[in-house]
Amino acid sequence: MAITDILNFHMLPYIVFPAALAIVFLLRFLRQSDSQSAATSPSLSPENEIVSLRVYPVKSCRGFEVKSAQVLRTGLDLDRNWMFLSAETREFLTIRANSKMTLLRTAFDADTNQLSIFTKQHEIKIPAHPTTEWLQNNTEIAKARIWGEETDAWEYHISLTKPFSEFLDMDVRLVYKGPTPRVLRGCGAPKLLGRTEATKFADMMPVQVASMSSLKELNERLVREGESEVDIERFRPNIIIRGGAPWVEDRWKVLRITNSHGKPLDLDVVSRCLRCHVPSVDPDTADKHPRQPWNQLMKYRRIDPGLKFKPAFGMLCVPRAEGLVEVGMKLNVTAVTDDHFFINPMK
Ligand SMILES: *[C@@H]1O[C@H](CO)[C@@H](O)[C@H](O)[C@H]1NC(C)=O
Ligand SMILES: *[C@@H]1O[C@H](CO)[C@@H](O)[C@H](O)[C@H]1NC(C)=O
């Protein structure tokens, strides 16, 4: 008995000191992880910061991220300047009709000022900012149909587009937007906007802005129902902000992009972006999910009184001027409205 008492007494320091040490380390660790989470908390990472910029040079094909871009009246530089059309009907082609389009990748080389378009086996290179003279020498001016409207387009030679016809399993042509402006319709029509603006081959408006926090809220709903999260790329936005409260963008009316140098750039938010089934197509595989995120969006995002049977994600904007936009810049909301009302541009 006496021996064990002595042993216990002598062993006390071996138990107390390590325990005290462990507590000190634990406290220090907790304090550190506290300050780390503070660094990523909303107060220190402003919600209106631009976190990503995306450009999709060829309508419905895979786009890419850029660190900076020139905002033009017609949209971000290079964005939707090209599209594929059916050789037979002269109608524009999108992921809606042929989901394999999303497997056509694009890349821009600033050094050579060239745009590359890739199938799995082929790469074609064309000038990214072709002059009228180059277009006259190398393409033919033709007609193209997009959303029930006829517009002019520079058509590339069939020898150049052959790999794409083979890849997409249909006879297609590649065209570059011709000189005649595609004047905005619907909510962007001159009468409503108060000035005449145009876009290249975007569906409706020059620029789409989206919020990561709204995507996060959507993804939380998807995960709760046992579905997979979706990437922001599904929605094909151009300017992506971190976002504060989800869906506050529903009421945006005027946005201002500010940078430390240069003038602020204002954009009119003309309408919500109402969605078709394109976000259900996985851009990596071209597989179309039978339900999501469509079903989830339909449950709670049919919020626009102008078109109740389509869900809203992202906001469609028309720049008031031109200028540079960079990741890290701030996007301020300078006016909001309760009057957004989608007007079908086909009418
Ligand atoms: C266009 O063709 C003309 C005549 O062949 C040639 O002189 C000119 O350099 C060409 N321009 C371009 C930009 O290809
Ligand atoms: C934009 O918003 C930030 C904070 O949200 C503010 O500090 C800044 O002054 C605003 N800039 C303009 C031009 O309104």
Give the SSE map.
Elements: H1 2-39, E1 50-55, E2 64-66, E3 68-72, E4 75-76, E5 82-86, E6 105-109, E7 114-118, E8 123-127, H2 132-138, E9 139-146, E10 149-156, H3 158-168, E11 172-177, E12 182-183, H4 190-193, E13 198-199, E14 207-211, H5 212-224, E15 239-241, E16 252-258, E17 265-274, H6 294-300, E18 312-319, E19 323-326, E20 330-336
Bound molecules: 2-acetamido-2-deoxy-beta-D-glucopyranose (2 copies).
List key phrases describing it:
347 residues; alpha+beta; M1 Pyruvate Kinase, Domain 3; 2 domains; four-stranded antiparallel β-sheet; 20 strands; globular; disordered N terminus; binds 2-acetamido-2-deoxy-beta-D-glucopyranose
Q: Outline of this structure?
A:
Pfam families: MOSC, MOSC_N. The chain has 347 residues and is α+β, with helices and mostly antiparallel strands. It has 2 domains: 47-55 and 185-336, M1 Pyruvate Kinase, Domain 3, CATH 2.40.33; 80-180, no CATH class.
Q: In percent, how helical is the residue content? A: 10-25%
Query: How far apart are the first and last residues' alpha carbons, in Å?
Result: 98 Å
Q: Please give the order of strands in the largest beta sheet.
A: 2-1-15-14-18-17-16-20
Largest sheet: 8 strands, mixed
How many structural domains?
2
Could you spell the SSE succession in H and E letters?
Answer: HEEEEEEEEHEEHEEHEEHEEEHEEE
Number of beta strands = 20
Top-tier CATH class of the largest domain = Mainly Beta
The overall pLDDT, averaged over residues, is 88
Beta strand %: 25-35%
Class derived from helix and strand content: alpha+beta
Q: Report low-confidence residues grouped into runs of 5 or more.
A: 1-7, 29-43
CATH architecture grouping of the largest domain: Beta Barrel
C-alpha-based Rg, rounded = 26 Å
Number of contiguous helices? 6
Mass-distribution shape = globular
CATH fold naming of the largest domain: M1 Pyruvate Kinase, Domain 3
Bound molecules: 2-acetamido-2-deoxy-beta-D-glucopyranose
